[in-house]
Structure formats: C-alpha cells, structure tokens
Amino acid sequence: MSESKVTNSLKTHTEGRNLIIERVFDAPRDLVFKAFSQKEHLENWWGPKGWKTTVHQFEFKPGGVWHYCMRCVDKNQGDFYGMESWGLSEYKEIVEPEQIVYTDAFSDAEGNKADGMPETLITMTFLDHGGRTKVISRSEFATEEALKQVKDMGVVEGVTSQYERFDEYLQQLQ
Questions:
Q1: What is the pTM of this model?
Q2: How confident is the model over 59-86, as pLDDT tens digits?
Q3: 48 preceded by cis ω (within 30°)?
Q4: CA 24, CA 91: separation in Å to the nearest integer?
Q5: CA 157, 160, 164, 166 torsion: positive or negative?
Q6: Which residues contact 97 (CB under 8 A, 6 or more apart)?
C-alpha cells in the first residue's frame, strides 16, 4: 500500500457516547473548510456513493439551519434505489477555518425532526497537516444506546463512502 493510502485511511473509535472519525485529505485546510461550508460544494459530495444531495435550506452561521435530502440514484444499490434520507442541522459555532459545531438529526421534507431517531452534536475540527488537512469529527450522542443505534445503521460505512467521494471532489478542485 502506498503512503497516501495508509495516511488517508479512515480511523474510528468510540469514547463512551462519542464516535470519533478521523481522516487526512490531500488538500489545504482552507479548501477543505470551504467544501464543508458552502452549499454548492456540499451538493457535489455529501452522502455515500450513489446518492445525490439536494440542499433545501442553508444558512452557514451560528443559529443557521441546513436542511437537505440525500436520494439514492444508483440502481445497483437494490432496495435503496430511490430511497430518500432527509437531514436537519443547526449550526452552533463556526471558527473559520478551524471548527464547525452543529446538531444533526433525521427529518422529514418539511424539516420536522424524526421521532425515535437520535440527534447528534457534531464537532468538526480541521487541522493543517503540512499542506494537507486532518479532519476530526466528534459525534456526541445522548446515550451509548443511541450511538449503537446509528452504528448499527451503518454510519461508519456511510462516512467511509462519503469521505471517498469528498477526496475525489477535492482532487477535481485543485
């Protein structure tokens, strides 16, 4: 395996009710942060491979809302094809280009949070890594059971696929 593959692999671990995901991207921190903070960028890479994201509301500021829909457009994904997954986030804190703190919840098309689904407090940290960027995502759940529920739904696999898309997208921008 090349150094790039080893360095860019996803690292995950849990600490109590927190899921920590880390990955290094071959792009400068300003660009990585911009791709996380602008609607036109997010629509090009957010979500797992084979899914298309449409942003319905986007206010990148503390107290601002991000409401989006991911739709499976890959017929090879079987029963997932055509499925929609709505998300609703509220930005809590933004320190450009170092950190984004927001809540994340499943929702419906009108922006109502889904009952019975966990809400997460996510802290995204962007570290300069010598011209590259280390992204650390810390997702804090209300309980360890809520964390287990999301892990059982495939969150690590989904983020792995999403970060592969993100890496490909960043390469196109450079």
A1: 0.91
A2: 999 999 999 999 999 999 999 999 999 9
A3: no
A4: 23
A5: positive
A6: 29, 30, 32, 33, 34, 126
